[in-house]
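Predict the 3D structure for this chain.
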Amino acid sequence: MNLDELTARLHAIRDRNDWRQFHSPKNLAMAASVEMAELVEIFQWLTEEQSRQLPPEKLEHAGQEVGDIVLYLLLLCSELGLDMEQVVRAKLADSERRFSS
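Done. Predicted structure below.
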């Protein structure tokens, strides 16, 4: 997955639709949160086992919500001037330091 290519494609969609005016960091963070809530809703009231064995239509829906979340986070990183790959690698390295025995 090339994050720069994905971000460029997102920017093309954003620019074609004149959405940049709505893409403040605040709005993008809120939009990602809404999409996360939609992902959580899929799992609401399921048992642990049911959550691990989603039927195909729910699994597809979950994938769509995950995609929405990732795309909003890419846009958020772009607006903030953050390199998504760099911040993820830094966080992973921090977790490895903190939680590896």
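The chain has five helices and no strands.
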